[in-house]
Amino acid sequence: MSFFSFELDPALAADPVFERHQRGKMAVAATVPLASRDDLSLAYTPGVARVCTAIAEDPSLYRDYTWTGNAVAVVTDGSAVLGLGNIGPQGAMPVMEGKAVLFKQFGGVDAVPVCLDTQDVDGIIEVVRAMAPSFGGINLEDISAPRCFEIERRLDELLDIPVFHDDQHGTAVVVLAALHNAVALLGRRLGDLRVVISGAGAAGVAITDMLIAAGVLGANMIVCDSRGIIHADRPGLGPVKEGLAARTNYSGRTGGIQEALIGADVFIGVSGGSVPESALAGMAPEAIIFALANPTPEVPPAVAHKYAAIVATGRSDFPNQINNVLAFPGIFRGALDVRARRVTERMKVAAAEAIAEIVSDELRPDLIVPSALDPRVAPAVAAAVARAAERDEVAQLRPVSPAPASLPVH
Questions:
Q1: Of residues 25, 44, 65, 306, which has the active-site annotation?
Q2: 10 Å Cβ neighbour count for 361?
Q3: Burial of 99: CB neighbours in 10 Å, binned 0-12, 13-18, 19+
Q4: Marked catalytic residue, from 99, 241, 307, 348
Q5: Which of 118, 160, 288, 311 could form a disulfide with 123 if both were Cys (CB 3.0 to 4.6 A apart)?
Q6: Is 99 a catalytic site residue?
Q7: Helices marked H in 235-342 — which ranges?
Q8: Which residues on adjacent β-strands are paired with residue 165?
Q9: Across 31-130, where does the E strand assignment appear?
Q10: What is the predicted pLDDT for the residue at 404?
Q11: Tens digits of per-residue pLDDT, 67-107?
């Protein structure tokens, strides 16, 4: 129902993308009937007062008798939106709406886009802390590095609900799942791989840490930024990149992406830059290339296939799409189901293993991860995350086992 009308730009109205976004991509729907006086008295006054009083006396009832047990805030400051950069909170809203729709479609999670008109670290933290009682989890989205690391860390310390920066950990989870299956298909081991990561922002740092946790040797990893290889003797490194230098590249290799890729088994691009073909020619035989910049991969797939046995991108129009939607709906579904206080490293690794397992019996070079539309993914991830939360003693409820074949839409 709308009481207002407005003229649309004819050129935009004729574009199917803009048509799909008119008046946004989501709405609020009631879950209870409101057709009679009895309905109103139960859902609102006077009945609601009894629920309010009970919660005030026993806060543990809060998530049982409000929507917060199934609600997530998708929070951004608009500082690093897709590959578009710092386009602000209004420009970011269509992406946050889209994220909320994906939460609902794939995880049955009610998500609310929250675009903040501040890029001050303390300001963001205070706003999210203050609104946290309205939600069962916080999904941080499209916040630029290095601020995103401090924001997530401090919120994780302040709140007793899951705080998850998807640009970091969602990407890392799906990359680990894809790499796990790629090495299985090629008969290799994670511990033997020489890995180069292009990009030292949110995703690059998280991928580095997750691969090391999974068994890739830091000594055999090189991380590059726009100035080249990160190494301990390079001047001008900030705290985050100093940490990367300490955890990787033990041989102290220097130079740019060309030097980094000499003898490399794996290239993972999360930079938005481009890699010359001459650099790819220096990689080891039967290489693995994950060129994940979107919409333009660091390496065009046609070129990547000249040098790699397995190629993945972040795009849906090529095989092996490394897509965060494989991770975050199930991760939050599992965390919410057991009322986890936080998302632990074990929960992230469990999510990656669950994603990989979905297609473990179907592996081929153009199928190392399931489709983003595969209905098996979110239930499997949710069940694995819930079990890992219990093992890590951050769950407040016991996980239900076995997991349902498909997730309910609440």
A1: 44
A2: 6
A3: buried
A4: 99
A5: 118
A6: yes
A7: 239-247, 257-260, 277-280, 301-307, 328-337
A8: 140
A9: 71-76, 110-115
A10: 43
A11: 999 999 999 999 998 878 899 999 999 999 999 999 999 99
- The pLDDT tens digits of the residues spanning 271-312 come to 878 999 999 999 999 999 999 988 889 999 999 999 999 999
Query: Across-strand partners of 224?
Result: 198, 229
Burial class (CB in 10 A: 0-12, 13-18, 19+), 401: exposed
Return the C-alpha torsion angle 255, 259, 260, 261, nearest 10: 160
List the structure tokens of 57.
């006396």
Mean pLDDT across the stretch 125-151?
96
Burial 49-61 (b: 16+ CB within 10 A, else e): eeeeeebeeeeee
What per-residue confidence (pLDDT) applies to 401?
Answer: 54
Asked if residue 223 lies in contact with residue 231, where contact means CB atoms within 8 angstroms, the answer is no
For residue 84, the surrounding DSSP H or E stretch is none
**402 cis-preceded (ω within 30 degrees of 0):** yes
Global pTM reads: 0.89
State how far the Cα of 136 lies from the Cα of 235, in Å rounded to an integer.
Answer: 42
| Complete DSSP assignment for 186-248 | HT--GGG--EEEE--SHHHHHHHHHHHHHT--GGGEEEEETTEE--TT-TT--HHHHHHHHHS
